[in-house]
């Protein structure tokens, strides 16, 4: 018997709605065993980030080697990496252990609007981590920030940005349309074969904390279970949409509350 295992390499969210905590909840909800490598501790709640404590690069390396030397990791999700030295440690670890699937969520800004990444780390993300990834999952502002240009406002501009992100060396790009306008939230999956448009009704709720983390970890969970990329992305979008739709069942915090990862269970 094989157990699907996914690893999240990301920052911790002390309020439990995003980061490592959201990733592990997502893996569990989708029937995948989750392991974690913590890159940063945040003092964070639904209203914002009040502090970030970086984990030293050598300890990130130690966590990576501890996990891979023992667990058969099927897919890796990478989230918040705020230091160039940590990015180097992750890239070296991935080359050492060669996991089959890598999902990169280029977390640059929190739901609350707090900037999480310094300029030198953005450059390392572009040149070192993106080329390792099977898929990257920027939202509209993150795609624009990675290319150092204004946010795309129509499908042609989104596709153009996606193609140029693809040219940075990843296999696929999923640009998330949650920051767009209109009755539907449209995501765009762009790879060598073309563009696939994935639409879902836009849900009126302020409880969207951790949506990006959860989507990327849901894709990693699907890949760990053997799904192809398009299936993993479709299933991940359905999972997150259901979590957002059920988010108002929770009364958590005074800001952007979390989505409901376990809405199928309670």
How would you summarize this macromolecular structure in one to three sentences?
The chain has 266 residues and is of the alpha/beta class.
What can you tell me about this protein's structure?
- With 266 residues, this protein is of the alpha/beta class.
- It has a single domain (5-249), classed as Ribokinase (UDP-N-acetylmuramoyl-L-alanine:D-glutamate ligase), CATH 3.40.1190.
- 37% of the residues lie in helices and 22% in strands.
- It is built from eight helices and nine strands.
- It has helices at 19-29, 57-68, 84-97, 119-129, 140-147, 155-166, 211-224, 229-245; strands at 5-13, 33-45, 48-54, 75-78, 101-104, 135-136, 172-175, 184-191, 194-201.
- A nine-stranded mixed beta sheet has the order 3-2-1-4-5-6-7-8-9.
- A hairpin with a 2-residue loop joins strand 8 and strand 9.
- Helix 1 (19-29) crosses helix 7.
- The longest helix has 17 residues, at 229-245.
- The protein is globular and about 45 Å long.
- The two termini are 29 Å apart.
- The model has no long low-confidence stretch (mean pLDDT 91).
């Amino acid at each position: 018997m094989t157990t699907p295992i996914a690893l999240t390499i990301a920052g911790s969210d002390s309020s439990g709605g995003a980061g490592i905590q959201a990733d592990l909840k997502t893996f569990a909800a989708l029937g995948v065993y989750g392991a974690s490598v913590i890159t940063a501790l945040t003092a964070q709640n639904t209203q914002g980030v009040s502090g970030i404590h970086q984990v030293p690069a050598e300890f990130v390396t130690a966590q990576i080697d501890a996990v891979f030397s023992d667990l058969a990791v099927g897919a890796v999700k990478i989230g918040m990496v705020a230091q160039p030295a940590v990015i180097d440690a992750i890239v070296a670890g991935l080359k050492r252990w060669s996991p089959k699937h890598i999902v990169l969520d280029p977390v640059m800004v929190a739901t609350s609007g707090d900037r999480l990444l310094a300029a030198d780390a953005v450059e390392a993300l572009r040149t070192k981590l993106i080329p390792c990834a099977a898929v990257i999952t920027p939202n509209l502002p993150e795609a624009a920030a990675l290319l150092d240009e204004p946010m795309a406002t129509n499908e042609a501009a989104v596709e153009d940005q996606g193609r140029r992100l693809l040219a940075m060396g990843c296999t696929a790009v999923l640009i998330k349309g949650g920051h767009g306008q209109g009755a539907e939230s449209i995501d765009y999956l762009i790879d060598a074969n073309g563009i696939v448009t994935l639409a879902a009704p836009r849900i009126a709720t302020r409880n969207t904390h951790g949506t990006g983390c959860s989507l990327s970890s849901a894709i990693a969970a699907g890949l760990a279970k053997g799904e192809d990329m398009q299936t993993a992305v479709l299933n991940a979008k359905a999972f997150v949409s259901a979590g957002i739709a059920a988010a108002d069942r929770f009364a958590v915090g005074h800001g952007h509350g979390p989505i409901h990862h376990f809405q199928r269970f309670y």
